[in-house]
Specification:
With 454 residues, the protein is of the alpha+beta class. It folds into 4 domains: 97 residues, no CATH class; 90 residues, Beta-Lactamase (2-Layer Sandwich); 83 residues; 148 residues, Histidine kinase-like ATPase, C-terminal domain (Heat Shock Protein 90, 2-Layer Sandwich), CATH 3.30.565.10. 52% of the residues lie in helices and 20% in strands.
């Protein structure tokens, strides 16, 4: 067996050339027609064999490409003793095939890992394409909706039409809450959707989490806080009213005497009764104002969204508070970056929110030298619009940071200018209606910053 491909080709070409010379000699000089015919067949055979031998390289390359095309990595490319160049070619083919096999194995392992994670997590996941065909549904989703499988997303309508409308109408990157009844159970679902493109088709991945228990706990906690505040405020008003009513009754009983069919009361007692009734009247009006504040808190109008300039809004708010700032000797600075910053919201509601925050800042700065309020508009790292109200006051106590957003909760104020306690809770409610947030950062002697994030 010839061990070198190059030498083998030369040997075969030389043999073919010699055979052709012999055939020409016989054809020109003799009349051995049978020998000439047989020698011609030998030439043809040698030519075919030489072509097949040379085309082994193409055959190997074809088999290699087919292995990649059909992901068939079971083929091997052993060395047939065709020389060093073929040895290197075979080794490279085998090495590439091994790399593909390794890459495929890693992808399969990653796929199995992701499948395990998706099926294991407690949040329900459903992925479907634009035709509604479900590509993925995990165990948590099946358990949540008590179904064995789901082939088309429209089948969610059999569970609850509100659920189907929420899932199909939810845009990528948005979230919503849906309350549905499933059998004897009530589900409060937090739904989040994201959209992506794969293989030229659009897909929507929707997550479902039942937060009914958590909402009930938070709702109960909120009601307890609200009840405590309401009870505190009402008792503060009712107690003096009841006490003064007893006092008036006692004064009228002890200091009135019947005379000629009429009752006569001493002047001093009459003055005491007038003072008591006046106090009852003032406290009753205070209680009515408190009730009206609660009504305002529960009747916030729906936002009327429009695109407006943040800089113009902040300038308008500063102008509205210019008089009080001069009286209290507070400087109000404006910082907007970029100057053309715009936001889509209800300008009236956002303006009311900023006014509430500035009023709180005024009260916090009453005993501060070089008092400063900074109104700032900017973008955060995610491209969301931020509007901030910052003061350089004494800050808020850590114990009060979470309580200040509870309706009717008000921190003590030495000047007696404390508000009704609904300003911050009202402002946070307005931001929730804008699908935004209102947060606070504060520290002792470090000032306070309220941030509206849209």
């Amino acid at each position: 067996m010839i061990k070198n491909f190059r030498f083998s080709v030369v040997w075969r070409v030389g043999l073919l050339f010699g055979t052709m010379l012999l055939w020409v000699f016989l054809f020109m000089q003799t009349e051995y027609y049978v020998s000439i015919a047989m020698l011609g067949m030998v030439i043809i055979f040698q030519t075919v064999q030489l072509i097949r031998y040379v085309e082994k390289t193409n055959d190997k390359l074809t088999r290699f490409l087919e292995s990649i095309r059909y992901s068939d990595f079971s083929r091997s490319f052993p060395d047939h003793g065709l020389g060093k160049s073929f040895e290197e070619l075979n080794q490279e083919f085998s090495r590439v095939i091994e790399e593909f096999k390794k890459e495929r194995a890693e992808k399969q392992e990653n796929y199995r890992y992701l499948q395990t994670v998706v099926q294991h997590i407690g949040i329900g996941l459903i992925c479907f394409n634009r035709e509604g065909e479900v590509e993925l549904i995990n165990t948590a989703a099946k358990r949540l909706f008590d179904i064995a499988t789901l082939r088309n997303i429209r089948a969610l309508g059999d569970i609850d039409e509100k659920l189907l409308r929420a899932v199909t109408g939810l845009k990528g990157g948005n979230r919503t809450l849906v309350r549905i009844g499933l059998g004897n159970e009530t589900l409060q679902l937090a739904i989040y959707a994201t959209e992506f493109r794969m293989h030229g088709d659009m897909f929507k991945l929707v997550s479902f989490q039942n937060i009914h228990t958590e909402l009930e706990e938070k709702e109960m906690e909120a009601w307890q806080n609200l009840t405590q505040v309401l009870a505190h405020e009402i008792m503060n008003s009712i107690t003096p009213i009841a006490s003064l009513s007893d006092t008036v009754h006692m004064l009228l009983t002890k200091n009135t005497t019947p005379r000629n069919g009429q009752y006569v009361i001493e002047q001093e007692a009459l003055n005491d009764v007038k003072d008591a009734l006046s106090t009852i009247n003032k406290r009753s009006h205070g209680l009515m104002r408190f009730v009206n504040s609660y009504r305002d808190f529960t009747q916030i109008p729906e936002p009327d969204f429009e695109l407006f300039s943040v800089a113009e809004l902040l300038k308008r708010v500063r102008h509205l508070n210019k008089g009080e700032a001069e009286v209290q000797q507070v400087t109000i600075d404006l910082e907007v970056d970029p100057e053309s910053l715009e936001v889509t919201a209800d300008p009236q509601l956002i303006e009311q929110t900023l006014i509430n925050l500035i009023k709180n800042a005024f009260r916090a700065l009453e005993s501060t030298n070089n008092a400063l309020i900074t109104l700032r508009g900017k973008l955060d790292s995610d491209g969301h619009v931020l509007i901030q109200v910052q003061d350089n006051g004494p800050g808020i106590k850590e114990d009060n940071l979470e309580k200040i957003f509870i309706p009717f909760y008000s921190t003590s104020n030495p000047s007696g200018r404390g508000g009704s306690g609904i300003g911050l809770s009202l402002s946070r409610q307005i931001m929730r209606m804008h699908r935004g947030t209102l947060t606070v950062q504060s520290g002792r002697n470090e000032g306070t910053t309220f941030t509206l994030r849209f």
